[in-house]
Structures are given as structure tokens and as C-alpha cells.
TrEMBL record:
MF term (GO), any: carboxypeptidase activity
Descriptive protein name: Murein L,D-transpeptidase YafK
Matches recorded under InterPro entries: LD_TPept_cat_dom (IPR005490), Transpep_catalytic_dom (IPR038063)
Organism: Mucilaginibacter pineti
Catalytic residues identified in the record: 145, 153
Signal peptide region: 1-19
Entry's family note: Belongs to the YkuD family.
Keywords (A to Z) from UniProt: Cell shape, Cell wall biogenesis/degradation, Peptidoglycan synthesis, Signal, Transferase
Domain L,D-TPase catalytic per the UniProt entry, residue ranges: 54-184
One biological process term in Gene Ontology: peptidoglycan biosynthetic process
Length: 235
């Protein structure tokens, strides 16, 4: 696309305030007005397009969420947020009421935004995914949200969710159809897997490892198929 058209498209988005079919509220709009100008400065300062596609990755053991932004054909780390609270320790969520926060490969679409959450702003992670549904796992409405308390969700605090929610909203508004959200118990290299080998989830974690490795190698979010109720990644 010619540079002039790109500039015109971005100006249109700015003037119209991203009028889209995305769920919205005054609360979410006010949050965007507060944090988006600074986020744009941070993005451009690191060489990113302010309306680029994003990828989200969570590591439970170190309680961190990473936001990656597409730069060229690959994704580059933009920002890391501390997770304020999640429940249940390491290991996947398998049923309603188990108090666990999920682990797996998820996607975020526009319908998963909740701009009027009781926890300020919230994004449904998409649990249970295809693999979890085939395994008969139960539960729903598992969120990344504000505040610093939750059972089964990832609570980020209100200031952090304002930024995370805004980045997700702006990427979807700019045309990204789905955002990959990968939640790992830890960085899935052999050292970590050996350290946590005594956990009963070791076999499951090893099915997640190829997806982790693909992103580490290519810096492109991994897509999966389902084989035998397990993840099978497209290499």
C-alpha cells in the first residue's frame, strides 16, 4: 500500500476514534484516552507500528505477562507486566471449581472483550480451547482482568489492565482477527522441565513444549491442530 494511503488510513482511525463493532463502554473509552497516547510513544520509540498485531504470553512461575508486537514478519517483545495474582499454582485447569488458572494455547477475538466487568476491564482467555473441550474440561468465563484478587483468572491490577486491554482493543480495531494468548507454567526448556519433572502434569507439559519452541525459534505464534486429544503443532 502506498505510504500516503497508510497515513490517510491511520488519520481516519484517529479521527473516528476506531469506530468498530468491538464491545465498548465509557470506562474502556476513558482508559484508552488515558493510556493510549503514552503507549503510542513507547511503541514508536521502539520502532513499532502503533496499530500492529500483538501476541501475548504468560509464565506462571515467574508471574509475568509478555506483550509482543509484530515488526516486519516476526514478533518482538514490547512490554512485560507482572501478574498481580492467579490461583491454584502450576498445572492446568480441568474443571469448574478446581481453583486453577488455565495453561494452554488460546485465542482472543472481539467478542471476548468485557468492557463492563466487575473486575474493571476483562478479556476472556478462551478456556476451554479445542483440546480442553475434547478432554471434557469444564469451566468458563476465565479472564485476564483488573483488581488483584481472583479464583481461576489472571488479575493484573487496574492500571495494568488499562494498558493490556487498550493494546488488545487497538489491535483488533486495526484489523487483527484473533490474538494468540499462550499460557505456560514456566519457560519450557529442558532445565525447567527436569526441575518440575516430579509434578504429575509433566506429560502434559511436554505436549506444550513444541509450541513454545516454535515461537522461540521463529518469533511467530504457533498454530496447533488436535491429534489424539493433544496439541499437534504446524511446523
Amino acid at each position: 500500500m502506498p505510504k500516503l494511503l497508510v497515513v490517510m488510513a491511520l488519520l481516519f482511525l484517529m479521527v473516528t476514534g476506531h469506530k468498530t463493532n468491538l464491545p465498548d463502554s465509557k470506562r474502556a473509552s476513558d482508559a484508552r484516552a488515558k493510556v493510549w497516547p503514552q503507549l503510542q510513544k513507547e511503541l514508536t520509540g521502539k520502532g513499532f507500528n502503533t496499530y500492529g498485531s500483538i501476541y501475548i504470553r504468560v509464565f506462571k512461575d515467574i508471574e509475568q505477562m509478555e506483550i509482543w508486537v509484530k515488526l516486519g514478519s516476526k514478533y518482538k517483545l514490547f512490554k512485560t507486566y507482572d501478574v498481580c495474582y492467579y490461583s491454584g499454582g502450576l498445572g492446568p485447569k480441568t474443571k469448574t471449581g478446581d481453583g486453577k488458572s488455565p495453561e494452554g494455547f488460546y485465542t482472543i477475538e472481539p467478542k471476548q472483550l468485557n468492557p463492563v466487568s466487575n473486575y474493571y476491564l476483562a478479556i476472556n482467555v478462551g478456556y476451554p480451547n479445542k483440546v480442553e473441550q475434547l478432554k471434557g474440561y469444564t469451566g468458563d468465563a476465565i479472564m485476564v482482568h483488573g483488581h488483584c484478587a481472583s479464583i481461576g483468572c489472571y488479575a493484573m491490577t487496574n492500571p495494568k489492565i488499562e494498558e493490556i486491554y487498550t493494546l488488545v482493543y487497538q489491535s483488533l480495531a486495526a484489523g487483527q482477527q484473533k490474538i494468540h494468548l499462550d499460557i505456560f507454567p514456566f519457560k519450557m526448556d529442558e532445565d525447567h522441565l527436569k526441575f518440575y519433572a516430579a509434578y504429575k502434569q509433566d506429560a502434559f507439559w511436554r505436549t506444550m513444549k513444541p509450541g513454545y519452541e516454535l515461537f522461540e525459534k521463529k518469533h511467530i505464534p504457533a498454530d496447533y491442530e488436535v491429534k489424539g486429544k493433544e496439541y499437534a503443532f504446524k511446523r
